């Protein structure tokens, strides 16, 4: 409609989140969304775009890129952006606010997968070097921007709790800190996509999602209040629920940027479940990337349920409607490439996982090497006991969900012909009379393990081609970069938990289109002369 007015971008800016009449830009059009806000399915988060372009948000919330949404918006058209502010028919880039402009600074050692939103994994060495992952090296998984909460007002941060009957109670962070006993637990968070890259490479089939190596997992000590205490205070009938007689089946968590997920009520009220509303991480306030000022910690469950920037808890007879509960974080069969999302349950408790995070090879002497090559050319002449071997030191982590502890890590240094047990570090032992650094009712934390051994020379072969023995990218490059004389051995590990659950042998067997729960034996190629 050419009769509609043209607005300068500066005019639109005056209609921000605080104004009486919030406006947004989409393409070169201007909309007054005042009447739409109460009906917006995503709630108030739409105000984040007010006074600027909604397009950069729709690049994050891609669900909006469909005709249905365009039709809704078209009802609110009030005009166009002035020619003077357009470049190629669109508002000039520098005029548009970057949704990620307020994101915090990050440690340079984190391995960035995507910058906006921020997704970064913990460097391998930091995974096994310390029991508690330092806050600045803890992996980061953000679906959107990092909400900005002022330090000065953080104690006023409001948590709304809504019971199934509609009763609402609100708590400031200060209320939580002062009115409830504080609890500490030591717990791993692991993304359902951890080791997705290994699944893609090991199965030879691509998977959909961030290609994390073994670093979408970290361990910290969390302090906060028990979710169960807060629910009881809000009027939730705890005794009824413990008897399995409550209509409430699920607890929904929502974050300030509109991320949401839920957990079954059973976990929330389990006296040994240790679900926290946490405000502290490794004895420091939560860093912004990890949910400042308040997040849920659901130990033993997939980290997608540990909602950050928590501002709303809703009790319901149903799971959260969010896409992260209903359309993601589920697994299907290796044959299923078109899936009915409703047909599979949402991932909650995690299966057994382990990974090699550090490999050190001791060198061979020339004599050993010559002897090895001689043996290679003349099969059978040298005895087993004289066979030279290359010293190797492996370290890594092992973890299981649901509070199940790791009882064993098995390692093979010769491609699976023989096995030995790795040493489990006594990280949870109390030292010098001080309390154990592992707090909580379940085994919520990981076990670090170490293995010092020797790779027998016979195990070194030309790099294997079998699908599941595909090495990590890094070691494959090393294995392939020179002449054909290079020989590699496959070292591998697997863990077992106290329910005797163990890891699958191959990624091919558990491949799923989203690459979730990649837990197959971690295999790495070590090369004789690298
Ligand atoms: N909570 C909010 N509000 N927004 C998010 O994007 N990501 C979830 C979960 N909680 C997410 C969230 C996912 S998928 C993971 S793996 C963990 O947070 C990551 O937590 P971390 O960044 O503290 O490691
Ligand atoms: Mo995740």
Overall geometry comes to: globular
Say how many strands there are: 28
Q: Would you tell me the structural class of the helices and strands? A: alpha+beta
Helix % is 10-25%
Strand order in the sheet with the most strands: 1-5-3-2-4
The value of Rg in angstroms is 27 Å
The N- and C-terminal alpha carbons lie at a distance of 68 Å
Query: Mean pLDDT, as a whole number?
Result: 90
Would you identify the regions where 5 or more consecutive residues have pLDDT less than 50? Answer: 375-387, 465-483
Fraction in beta strands: 25-35%
Bound small molecules, by name, code or SMILES, are:
ligand MTE, molybdenum atom
How would a crystallographer describe the biggest sheet? 5 strands, mixed
SS summary, helix count: 13
């Amino acid at each position: 409609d050419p009769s509609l007015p043209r607005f300068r971008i500066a005019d639109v800016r005056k209609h921000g989140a605080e104004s009486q009449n919030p406006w947004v830009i989409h393409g070169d059009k201007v909309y007054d969304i005042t009447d739409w806000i109460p009906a917006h399915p995503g709630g108030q988060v739409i105000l984040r775009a007010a006074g600027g372009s909604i397009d950069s948000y729709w690049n994050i919330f891609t669900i909006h890129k469909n005709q249905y949404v365009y039709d809704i918006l078209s009802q609110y058209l009030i005009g166009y952006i002035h020619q003077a502010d357009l470049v190629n028919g669109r508002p000039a880039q520098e005029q548009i606010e970057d949704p990620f402009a307020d994101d915090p600074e990050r440690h340079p050692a984190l391995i960035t997968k995507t910058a906006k939103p921020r997704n970064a994994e913990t460097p391998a060495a930091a995974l096994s070097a310390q029991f508690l992952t330092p806050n600045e090296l803890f992996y980061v998984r953000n679906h959107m921007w990092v909400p900005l909460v002022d330090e000065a007002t953080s104690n006023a941060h409001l948590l709304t709790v809504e019971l199934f009957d509609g009763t609402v109670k609100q708590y400031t962070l200060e209320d939580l800190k002062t009115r409830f006993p504080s609890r500490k637990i030591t717990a791993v968070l692991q993304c359902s996509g951890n080791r997705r890259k290994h699944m893609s490479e090991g199965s030879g089939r691509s998977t959909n999602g961030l290609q994390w190596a073994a670093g979408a997992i970290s361990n910290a000590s969390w302090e906060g209040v028990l979710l169960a205490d807060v629910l009881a205070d809000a009027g939730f009938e705890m005794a009824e629920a413990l008897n399995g007689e409550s209509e409430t089946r699920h607890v929904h968590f929502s974050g300030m940027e509109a991320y949401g997920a839920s957990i079954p009520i059973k976990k929330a009220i389990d006296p040994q479940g240790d679900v926290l509303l946490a405000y502290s991480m490794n004895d420091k306030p939560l860093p912004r990337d990890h949910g400042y000022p308040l997040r849920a910690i659901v130990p033993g469950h997939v980290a997608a349920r540990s909602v950050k920037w928590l501002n709303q808890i809703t009790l319901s007879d149903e799971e959260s409607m969010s896409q992260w509960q209903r359309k993601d974080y589920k697994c299907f069969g290796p044959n299923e490439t078109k899936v009915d999302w409703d047909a599979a349950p949402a991932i909650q408790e995690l299966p057994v996982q382990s990974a090699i995070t550090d490999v050190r090879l001791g060198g061979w002497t020339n004599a050993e090497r010559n002897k090895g090559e001689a043996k290679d050319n003349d099969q059978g002449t040298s005895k087993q006991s004289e066979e030279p071997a290359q010293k190797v030191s492996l370290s890594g982590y092992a973890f299981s969900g649901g509070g199940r502890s790791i009882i064993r890590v098995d390692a093979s240094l010769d491609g699976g012909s023989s096995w030995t047990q790795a040493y489990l570090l006594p990280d949870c032992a109390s030292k010098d009379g001080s309390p154990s650094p592992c707090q909580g009712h379940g085994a919520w934390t990981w076990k670090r393990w170490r293995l010092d051994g020797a790779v027998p020379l016979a195990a070194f072969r030309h790099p294997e081609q079998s699908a599941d023995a595909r090495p990590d990218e890094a070691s494959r490059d090393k294995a392939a970069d020179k002449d054909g004389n290079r020989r590699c051995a496959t070292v591998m590990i697997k863990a077992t938990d106290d329910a005797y659950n163990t890891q699958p042998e191959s990624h091919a067997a558990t491949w799923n289109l989203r690459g979730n729960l990649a837990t197959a034996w971690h295999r790495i190629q070590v090369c004789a002369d690298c």
